[in-house]
């Protein structure tokens, strides 16, 4: 398993380089000019000097190589300097946001906690709700619980976040007045009362994101459980006198989790994509809002960096799923 993990990590390097090149070239083809928002009173020669300062006058391959060096070499040095107090990155040019005139990774680090508060909580809640629903629906197939769960999860899977977001705002914020519809990103948790305030403003965006996660994972869990409940090893386990709880929760559940692991692992980076819309609806000043703002401002370094971070999450989510396969199924061995 260790050899396989090392080999996959090595193979992920050219994969990520190719993805980065693809993102960079697509952004190069995108219409728009970062100087479009500069006031018309600025003389043309000043605009030209500004373009040169941003590196827009350099060839494409030169700018791509500079971005690679900055992301894979200079930014890790900045992290090391922050942790150990060294000065490896001192005086080196980092990836600069055209919109904020500051390092892109600094903006990402500032906004990451807000996204993790909402997205991380929503995904954990969605998985914890989905697994029991899927297990019990499969065990009580065609029961009232199964039919009701199927109906609710199909609705949750079909309705997009840009519809459920305003819907819960109208119901729970405007009509009932239970929760605030604007997420206060400046709020800090210092005591129990401030934690309650944070919890209240998280409930609606977490509800919207967790709904789709619950719907998707519960359906996969139910289908996988049904496929294993009719296998020969289940009848053998029951014939040996094992209790129904041991048969279902140990033998059937472990085998059923193998395909579900892929859905859970790949869903982690995917929910960040869904959070882009949810953050806009609830005014969460997170990474998704930063990406939308960078696209509107034609801030290519920020768009490239954040999009590539999402690609890194997907690649390592695949690796995590493959490793979990081997842990859940002893028949799987990676040579």
What can you see in these coordinates?
With 335 residues, the chain is mainly α. It has a domain at 108-328: Orthogonal Bundle (MetI-like fold). 76% of the residues lie in helices and 0% in strands. The protein is built from 11 helices and no strands. It has helices spanning 2-29, 44-53, 60-84, 104-139, 144-158, 161-175, 192-229, 232-239, 244-282, 287-296, 300-328. The longest helix is centred in the last third of the chain and has 39 residues, at 244-282. The model has no long low-confidence stretch (mean pLDDT 78).
Structural class: mainly alpha
Classified by CATH, the class of the domain at 108-328 is: Mainly Alpha
Strand portion: under 5%
Let me know the CATH homologous superfamily of the domain at 108-328: MetI-like
Straight-line N-to-C gap: 8 Å
Remind me, CATH topology of the domain at 108-328? MetI-like fold
Please give the largest β-sheet.
none
Summarize model confidence as the mean pLDDT: 78
* H/E series: HHHHHHHHHHH
Q: Shape from CA axes?
A: globular
CATH architecture of the domain at 108-328: Orthogonal Bundle
The amount of helix comes to: over 70%
- Count of extended strands: 0
Oligomer kind: single chain
Stretches where pLDDT is under 50 for at least 5 consecutive residues are none
| Alpha carbon gyration radius | 24 Å
Give the gist of this structure.
The protein is an all-alpha fold and 335 residues long. It is built from eleven helices and no strands.
């Amino acid at each position: 398993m260790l050899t396989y993990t090392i080999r996959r990590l090595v193979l992920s390097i050219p994969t990520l380089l190719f993805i980065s090149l693809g993102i960079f070239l697509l952004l190069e083809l995108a219409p728009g000019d970062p100087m479009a928002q500069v006031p018309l009173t600025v003389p043309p020669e000043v605009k030209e000097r500004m373009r040169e300062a941003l590196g827009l006058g350099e060839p494409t391959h030169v700018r791509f190589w500079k971005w690679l060096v900055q992301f894979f070499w200079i930014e890790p040095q900045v992290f090391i300097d922050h942790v150990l107090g060294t000065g490896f990155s001192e005086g080196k040019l980092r990836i600069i946001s055209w919109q904020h005139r500051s390092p892109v990774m600094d903006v990402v680090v500032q906004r990451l906690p807000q996204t993790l508060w909402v997205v991380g909580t929503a995904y954990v809640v969605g998985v914890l709700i989905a697994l029991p629903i899927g297990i019990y629906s499969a065990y009580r197939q065609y029961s009232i619980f199964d039919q009701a769960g199927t109906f609710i999860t199909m609705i949750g899977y079909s309705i997009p976040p840009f519809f459920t977001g305003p819907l819960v705002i109208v119901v729970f914020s405007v009509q009932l007045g239970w929760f605030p519809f604007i997420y206060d990103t400046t709020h800090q948790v210092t005591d129990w009362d401030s934690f309650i305030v944070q919890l209240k403003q998280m409930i609606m965006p977490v509800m919207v994101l967790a709904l789709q996660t619950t719907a998707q994972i519960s359906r996969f869990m139910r289908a996988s459980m049904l496929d294993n409940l009719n296998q020969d090893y289940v009848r053998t386990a029951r014939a040996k006198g094992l209790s129904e709880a041991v048969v279902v929760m140990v033998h059937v559940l472990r085998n059923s989790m193998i395909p579900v692991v892929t859905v859970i692992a790949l869903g982690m980076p995917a929910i960040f994509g869904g959070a882009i819309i949810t953050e806009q609806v609830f005014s969460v000043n997170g990474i998704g809002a930063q990406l939308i703002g960078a696209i509107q401002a034609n801030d290519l370094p920020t768009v490239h960096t954040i999009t590539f971070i999402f690609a890194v999450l997907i690649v390592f989510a695949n690796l995590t799923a493959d490793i979990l396969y081997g842990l859940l199924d002893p028949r799987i061995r990676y040579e």
